[in-house]
Amino acid sequence: MPTLYVGIDHELFSGAAPHPYATSSGPYVLSLRRLEPAKSVDRTIEAMGLLKDEIPELRLIVAGDGSMRSELVAYADRLGLASRVHFIGDVPIEEAASLLKGAFATVVASKSEGGGLVNVEAQAAGCPVIATRAGGIAEYLGGESGALYVDAPDGRMIADGIRILWRDPDARERLVTDARALSERFSTRVLAAEYTDVYADLIKTWQPRGFAPWDMITSALWEDLAVPAGSAPTLDHPWRTPQAVEDLVLATADPGFRALGHGADAFYYLAWATGVPLDRLREVCAYVLRSTGRLPKETVAAGLEHAADWGRFDSESCLGYIRN
What we know:
Layout: H1 10-14, H2 21-24, E1 28-32, H3 41-51, E2 59-63, H4 69-78, E3 85-89, H5 93-102, E4 105-108, H6 117-125, E5 129-131, H7 137-141, E6 148-149, H8 155-167, H9 169-183, H10 188-205, H11 216-229, H12 242-250, H13 255-258, H14 262-273, H15 278-291, H16 297-309, H17 315-323
Parallel strand pairs: 1-2, 1-4, 2-3, 4-5, 5-6
């Protein structure tokens, strides 16, 4: 079975017009990120502080929102960057494309990441990417020629990357050219053909068979609904509403754990859905609550959500994602 990726609207990003910021206020670095601890936007702000005297005309546009917004705004103020770091909140995808098109570069300094389609979107828009190699970032970017990589989400390293591109316009242009070509493999038009080929191959070997539950959710639904009724569930059964199933699962969680927020809910539900026994899951949740009592709820919830994204539901892995 080949690896199949999620794609982007390549034409939207490659054909976007530069954002008015590019002409009205001069060159800018773009951070198009959720404002959560794992995204390390604070390190990009730190890099701008290190460059403020060397490249005084360069600004940072922070597009996105999240639990760290107020903290990041205060940090920029402490560094004397209030007039050079602009927080514009969440933006629609069309504006994101224009922001990428007009940016001098974008920084993706994640501590953890699945793949990050924003990286490919930047490549398609002709925006150089300065990135860590966390998670699947390098895979999505196409390897060493797809971005300027830094070894860690570190302010000095990010500043060095910006400095390299600023001082060598030819190197920046080569990176743009190479990266734009790499991004084309993620076009939904290209990927649609690949998906079609996979299904065409599956049809050749398809054989009809009766339904058999394949995980905890389908087993529970089959036992509770289909078996007593003597037939398969129909479309009008209430569990067909995904929220109904999620509510039933989350009702078994400790209220104190759920009080952490959306990230905790996502962690609990995904752990259950992947087969973690309820008694074991409750032990992990209780351990997390005991070990993170002094941390902000937003930080704990964000770490739990990242742990769930990577399918890590044991106690130590959870703490690792929370503390990083």
